[in-house]
Write a structure and sequence with these properties.
TIM Barrel, single chain, 288 residues, alpha/beta
């Protein structure tokens, strides 16, 4: 069942949980996520980031994502993650995405706001919802960097008072906040400031807060973030890693000289990613 970002976040708000948002830069990852969601009967967000374009074009995987979302037995939002240009946002909207994120977090406040307002106007023409970001998770903002996180002097925590004005002036449906997480593999334990989340919710009139850099965060910290008001958790790196590990483990089971079949490898990856996603979904839904 295809729904908008605003609709799926309303479900999360009603249940006081977070909806998992998982990137799908392959058919195997897409199947793993939707199968996991259907087995658990949980709503889910499938998304594609502009930085994944070298892996598979949005023009190819995007149409497949929308088609699978329409056929799913659970509510599914098809969302663009970290859209950096208006042309790319429009491409996603034309394909049928029901949510887009404009990422102007590395720009000045004024430029970020102006561009976000334009993204909202674009999305309104198709009925899609908009997520934006205020603050910055630092060097890994676009998915590149070392994951050390806490010592990154480019990280800027979201200012709740500034967020109030940003949400009011932009008309967005969800706000990605910087409160200590980092994209990619964590090399050190992140220092999370849940007061940022609570204060953003209070100042903005309860805008749904989005947590980026969700992979690698401990279960207790996820639960604390959700209790503070996080309603969408972006999760990809550790799901992707689980698939890679499964492939490596499978290859170790082959006897010397035994043929290696690509189809067998990707089946192992899909199974591992599905189990990893199920555990993440249960954590976000406070099922454990």
């Amino acid at each position: 069942m295809l729904v908008t970002l605003k609709e799926i976040l309303a479900i999360a708000e009603e249940k006081k949980i977070a909806v998992g948002a998982f990137n799908t830069p392959s058919l195997e990852s897409l199947r793993a996520i939707l199968l996991a969601a259907e087995e658990l009967s949980l709503p889910v967000i499938i998304q594609f980031a502009q930085c994944h374009e070298p892996w598979i074009p949005l023009s190819v995987i995007g149409k497949i994502m929308v088609a699978h979302a329409k056929e799913a037995k659970v509510p599914v939002c098809v969302h663009l993650d970290h859209g950096e240009t208006f042309d790319y946002l429009q491409q996603a909207l034309d394909i049928g995405f029901t949510g887009i994120m404009y990422d102007g977090s590395t720009l000045s406040y004024e430029e970020n706001l102006a561009n976000t307002k334009k993204a909202v106007e674009m999305a309104a023409k198709t009925g899609a919802s908009v997520e934006a970001e205020l603050g910055s998770m630092g060097k890994r903002e676009s998915g590149a960097g070392d994951g050390s996180g806490e010592d990154d002097d480019t990280k800027i925590y979201t200012d709740p008072v500034q967020a109030k004005q940003f949400v009011k002036d932009s008309g967005i449906d969800a706000l990605a906040c910087s409160f200590g997480t980092t994209h990619g593999i964590y090399l050190t334990k992140p220092r999370l400031d849940f007061d940022v989340v609570r204060n953003v919710r209070r100042e903005t009139g309860d805008i749904p807060v989005v947590m980026h850099g969700g992979s690698g965060v401990e279960r207790e910290d996820f639960h604390a973030a959700i209790r503070a008001g996080v309603r969408k958790v972006n999760y990809f790196t550790y799901m992707d890693k689980s698939g890679g590990t499964a492939c490596a483990d499978y290859l170790k089971t082959l006897k010397e000289g035994e043929p290696i079949f690509f189809s067998s490898i990707i089946m192992e990856a899909e199974k591992a990613m599905k189990e990893n996603v199920k555990e993440a979904m249960k954590t976000f839904a406070l099922m454990d």
